[in-house]
Amino acid sequence: MLNISRRPARxxxxxxxxxxxxxxxxxYLNETQGWDEEMQRRVHAQHFDPxxxxxxxxxxxxxxxxxKRLLPDNIVFIENxxxxxxxxxxxxxxxxMTEEINTAQKENYHIQLQVLKNNPKALRFYQSLGFAAxxxxxxxxxxxx
Length: 145
Hints:
145 residues, Aminopeptidase, seven-stranded mixed beta sheet, 37% helix, 33% strand
């Protein structure tokens, strides 16, 4: 049985989170905008805010992260929900998002997030949780529940 827990991110987690991010998104981003390793590392470092991030743990190992921020109009925006590829398809992301949805409903918030159009697996995942597209651009769907 998987023991799933969370812990607050710390500044020293920056490299860990970059590795999870690059393994999770590199192929999708490479298709849409190309992958420039130096630029991706720089952008990651500039936007890294451990106060917005929760590390996802499985059996006492750091295996992913949830990054979210509170927006006006009672909206929680999920910047990233990324699970290391070795731990995907085990229900971990579903469990984390179900907890987030339940909390948002109790607190009368909506959840929004963006999904890359070229990532049908992520799109199906969020649709299965009840998210619906409310707008889109050339590369992403903006979804809300």
